[in-house]
Amino acid sequence: MATDIGNRKSLSADLVKSLKKQFQKLQRLDISAYTFERHNSHYPDAKADLSVYDSLGTHVIVGREFGGRQTLFWESATPIVDKR
User: Fold this and answer.
1) What is the pLDDT of residues 3-20, one digit of tens each?
2) Domain total for the chain?
3) What is the predicted pLDDT for the residue at 70?
């Protein structure tokens, strides 16, 4: 089960690096004002699901954290909502 559920936080250096690696359009942008929230994941072997927000607070990216510091991201039109 994920910790810090629903608490919006600043992106860590590792998350910034991972986002810029996976999204070419973010490589030259300053994303230091982006924030994220963790959500419980129903996906097997996932530690948590993530919702990433831009500097205006607009939901822009969804992600999933796995063990070993691996995080995968994709663009999504709607944020993840934990319904448990």
Assistant:
1) 566 689 999 998 999 999
2) 1
3) 85
